[in-house]
Amino acid sequence: MPDPHEGPGEVAAGDAADHPTDATTEPTPALDADASPKPASALDADALAEPPSALTADALAPAVDTPVEVAADLAPDTPPDPEPPTPPPKRPPPPPAPRHHAAVRLIRPNGAVILLGLLCALAAIESISAFLEYRERIGEADWDEVATVLANQSSEATEPVIVASEWLGPSARMRLPQTRSWDALAYPDLRSFPRFWLLTHKRERPWRGPLRAELEGLPRPKLISVHDVGELSLQEYEQDIGTERFSLLESVHTITTAQGRCRGGTGTWDCKEGRVSLRTVEIDYRPRRCLVLELGDGVTAAINLGELELGDHIRGHVGFADFNSRLRADPTARLELWLDGAAAARWVFTDDQGWAAFALATPAGKHELELRVTSTVAGTWQRDGHRDTPTDSLCVELRGFEEGSATP
């Protein structure tokens, strides 16, 4: 702050030295930045305190301009721009996890590995238990005893022995002659057997499996006797099914097509459009004994059975053989049954019906019987389209029964 006892000239000189200005403008004395601004009345009082000789024109000039400078200095300062908030410091990224070898990652004990190990252990325990429970325990002595029971108990040598447990079939057919007949192996259904034997494993329930479907609505046969031999069970059954009058497999007289009569007659008939034969084929994954027709597309075969003694019902089955042919052909079949030269019934079947059954009520007595069979689609569907070969294998069988009120 300037000393009030110093002259105006000294104050002006000191201020000019502290605040240099451009050469084009006159130096303007300015107040000391540290000194507090004074009002004009106070400045005049200080100036009047000096002797009159010191008040010169040069000294009064700064005093006149001083209020303008002071007013500029007294202007309120512009508030500084607010500084942006300081962002929080970034957390350093975690260090990369060490990469282990694939074998180390696989062996590392985690939840998935532990669960997989438990499942493998459980599967091993189940396999061992199943092996111990169902291991082969059937010896030659058991088979010999079964053969002895059949020889002593069977009233007729023609009674078939049906193996209900499919896995026992090969072993049974090697040791028991009764299991090798067509009636026991490729029967159409259980309707043809007034009496039969059932061979099964002791722990199995045969009537809960595929054998139940062979009844086709019949009640379960009556159990006569049970013979447990080691792990085998031999069961004897009988049922009231009426009397079988005829079978197609034993009654074919002639077979004709649109191009003439087929030649043959000893189980095989050669036609111009194909062949008809008596064979055992696979139908719906089971062997069936039937009349197999392998004819061209749309060819109708008229099978003449001659004059037969009919009962009150005709029952039969139809199906398509060979899984691969069924898969690639999608064939259909039409059957017509003619009695005394007139159509009595007509059926249409497809390959996905399996071993399909049909039935017809007939008048008793002797009648001319003819079966007409047509395969509507022949050949197979291949990558390049439809081929006429191989032809479908259509399997047909039918029988006549005098049932009365014995069966539905």
Can you give me a brief rundown of this structure?
This protein is of the alpha+beta class and 408 residues long. Helix content is 25%, strand content 32%. The protein folds into three domains: 8-74, no CATH class; 140-241, no CATH class; 244-402, Sandwich (Jelly Rolls).
Distance between the termini: 136 Å
3D shape? flat
What is the beta-strand fraction?
Answer: 25-35%
Helix content: 10-25%
Rg calc: 58 Å
CATH class of the largest domain: Mainly Beta
CATH topology of the largest domain: Jelly Rolls
CATH architecture label name of the largest domain: Sandwich
Tally of alpha and pi helices: 9
Pattern of helices and strands? HHHHHHEHHEEEEEEEEEEEEHEEEEEEE
Largest sheet: 8 strands, antiparallel
Which stretches are poorly predicted, pLDDT < 50 over at least 5 residues?
1-72
The figure for the number of domains is 3
Quick check: average pLDDT? Answer: 77
Tell me how many strands there are: 20
Structural class assignment: alpha+beta
How do the helices and strands line up, and which of them pair or pack?
Blueprint: H1 8-18, H2 40-49, H3 57-74, H4 102-107, H5 111-134, H6 140-153, E1 161-163, H7 169-175, H8 182-185, E2 195-201, E3 222-229, E4 232-238, E5 243-247, E6 254-257, E7 260-261, E8 263-264, E9 268-271, E10 274-283, E11 286-295, E12 300-310, E13 313-320, H9 323-329, E14 332-339, E15 342-350, E16 356-361, E17 365-375, E18 380-382, E19 385-387, E20 394-402
Parallel strand pairs: 1-2
Antiparallel strand pairs: 2-4, 3-4, 5-20, 6-7, 6-12, 8-9, 9-10, 10-11, 11-20, 12-17, 13-16, 13-20, 14-15, 14-17, 18-19
Region (Disordered): 1-101
Biased composition (Pro residues): 77-97
